[in-house]
């Protein structure tokens, strides 16, 4: 009896298994076929929506359309002014503009002629926000959906970093569900205030597209913004890309172009800076006219292993053996008789590239960038130990370059951003998160150069920046290059105040014990150089260098000779004769030259604390005596 039962049971099992298999297969078959039909339908609907928007965009009229400025009057203006403190931008103007307004296509016209491959990776666009105002947030989402070809847009993730504005709760949920019933826009919410770094990490982890694109929550993506970035990542998965960032005016919401293209740099205080595209980068980009050397050929093949590369052929005269440079560069063609021919470089290849090619950049501003999703994680995503705001942009920039990637701006990809006057949100605990985050990045990535950061941030020395062991480990595991390599190869024009200079440190007038001092003035503006009692290394305002090019300078700006008896302003460095200085260590004088060639001595005259310095005829007086704190020449 027990045996029989046993058999019966086994039989039952078999039947059950078969039934289960049938059920499971049919269930999957049914659902899969259903999903794929739906997918096609959804794509069709998305394409329709995209085309419809494109067709009507140019014809739209109304306040703020075509990216126009909105000016308010009377009560509305007063209201906007009173809210400006809280929002740091004109929220009333923004609320009056359509959430899907039209903006001008500000790309260089040559961008429209660039052909991108039809097969491109798909994008997950991640928009992080904490208590963002309604209209800029949704305008960001609309601009992404309306200006991204549906086949490349995998999803838009609105990543809510624990906002507590009431309208960002169920009202936002309902708006999204109603406006984008196809589910292209998703909302994900953090369970605690994470800060923008961990919020982006949460978004990246949830995303499933091939490429991650991060945006701030007050942006407008412009026509054609997506394809050039996806195409570049398809070509080189290690490229981390920034669109050109256009200005959306915080007062009028006007969408304006950038004016001139820039790349990212940094101050030694680890703040981000914009700078003009350096000459070496412009040269690299117009590599169609690169000089004949082995390096460009080798590096080109390293970058694109599947390319065959020819040098430009110069002429060596058969009779005289004179070597003459090839005047007009040409490329090869052929005639139908199958003879080789020379032909002019097509203008799209020569001229266009200057306007359309990626521009290498030492750093990024931080908020708007694209990266291959897997590559983003391979090179260490972000430092999850960084809080709220600041520092992560330089961290990802240094790391990308040092660990085998590259950072580029894509001129044909344009996205507007509202540059706000201040932070419209709280910093929990009132911490200087930019300072502490920067300590983490300096300690992990900057090697001995972190000294230059601490010169500016003596206040941070000894502060607790938390545990960085995992990031140090990451750097080792990825076998990343040194910060010196980064400076030498990626940012060679970055001035290093205490290396490769004649002298540096405090510039002291010993008799008075007064030192050159910026008196806290902003180095990005022109101002007359000051003096103050020497702080003996305690103040970054007193750090000057006598550079190898004979400039008497700060990080970005140079002391400039104006005239006999005139004050000495600090102006941006030009390399001109009136910014060349000599120091005589025996006579203790510092001499400069006017544009007219007159040699004058740096002189503090009778000035006291908070006074100025002058250039005067050299007279051997005490007020013309100067010493540097450190001499690197012997
Ligand atoms: O706790 C927070 N949680 C968040 O989700 C704090 C902020 N945020 C969100 C916020 O809602 C916004 O969408 O993070 C985003 C960035 O904050 P912003 O807009 O206040 O920053 P910002 O534009 O003033 O600052 C720039 O530098 C930051 C350094 O940490 C970030 O990298 C920003 O993304 C970056 N913005 C840009 O690069 C846009 C171009 C501006 C320039 C230059
Ligand atoms: Mn921003």
UniProtKB/TrEMBL annotation:
One of its GO terms (molecular function) is polypeptide N-acetylgalactosaminyltransferase activity. The chain crosses the membrane at residues 12-30. It is found in: Golgi apparatus membrane. Residues 501-629 form the Ricin B lectin domain. One of its GO terms (cellular component) is Golgi membrane. It is an enzyme of class 2 (transferase). Its cofactor is Mn(2+). Its main location: Golgi. One of its GO terms (biological process) is protein O-linked glycosylation. Keywords: Disulfide bond, Glycosyltransferase, Golgi apparatus, Lectin, Manganese, Membrane, Signal-anchor, Transferase, Transmembrane, Transmembrane helix. The keyword Nucleus does not apply. Pathway: Protein modification; protein glycosylation. Its EC number is 2.4.1.-. InterPro entries: Galactosyl_T_C, GalNAc-T, Glyco_trans_2-like, Nucleotide-diphossugar_trans, Ricin_B-like_lectins, Ricin_B_lectin. It is a single-pass type II membrane protein. It comes from the Eukaryota. Gene3D superfamilies: 2.80.10.50, Spore Coat Polysaccharide Biosynthesis Protein SpsA, Chain A. Belongs to the glycosyltransferase 2 family. GalNAc-T subfamily. This is Polypeptide N-acetylgalactosaminyltransferase.
